[in-house]
Amino acid sequence: MQIWAKIEEWLQKNQSLILMYVIDSQGSSPGRAGFKMIVNDQGEMYGSIGGGFMEHKLVELCKKELLQKPFSPFLKRQIHRPDLPKDRSGMICSGEQTIAFYPLGKSHLPWITELLEAKGKGLLIADHQDIVFHKNENLSAPFESRLSSPSVWRFTENLRFQAVLHIIGGGHVGLALSRFACELDFTVKVYDEREGLNTLARNHFAEAVIVPDYSQIADFVAEGAQQYVVLMSFGYRTDKVILRQLLPREYAYLGMLGSRAKVETLFSELREEGIPEELLDRVHAPIGVQIGSKTPAEIAVSILAEVIGLRNGETQSCTECESLYFTKASQMASLCPECAHQIYGYTACQHVFEKGRCVHCHWDGSVSDYVKKIKGKS
Ligand SMILES: [Zn+2]
Ligand SMILES: [Zn+2]
Question: I need a labelling partner for 13 at 20 to 30 A (CA). Which of 124, 196, 218, 321 fits?
Answer without folding.
Answer: 124
